[in-house]
Write a structure and sequence with these properties.
single chain, 114 residues, alpha+beta, 2 helices, binds FE2/S2 (inorganic) cluster
Length: 114
């Protein structure tokens, strides 16, 4: 990654993205075939740039191939992007990632139960 170096932030949660790419022998769509690998890279750049305590996990098929790319914010939202990798769709995901980060930070700052 280019640009100014900054101290990494320990992740509080993960965002799991299906990057499965079929060889197209069965003619089903796949998240990787619909651009999920580039989406994972884009989200990773944004998370790093904003120092959000989250990590991207590139994973296998999530069994919802017709509606991908698919991704899941750990403990929060699940997205079926239906091939929509627009800036608006990515910003919508980032809004949810930022909200989850704030929720996790608030939980971490609470006093432990007696
Ligand atoms: S290829 Fe992504 S859910 Fe199956």
């Amino acid at each position: 990654m280019e640009g100014e170096w900054s101290m990494p932030v320990a992740p509080l949660f993960t965002v799991r993205i299906c990057i499965n790419k079929r060889l197209n022998t069965d003619r089903l769509p796949s998240c990787g075939g619909r651009g999920s690998r580039g989406l994972a890279d884009a989200l990773e750049r944004l998370i790093t740039a904003e120092r959000i305590p989250a990590s991207i996990t590139r994973g296998p098929c999530m069994n919802n191939c017709m509606n991908g790319p698919n991704l899941k914010i750990q403990g929060a939202d699940y997205f079926n992007l239906q091939g929509d990798l627009s800036d608006a769709a990515i910003e919508n995901i980032m809004v949810k990632i930022r909200a989850e980060a704030e929720r996790r930070k608030a939980l971490a700052s609470q006093d432990p139960p007696p």
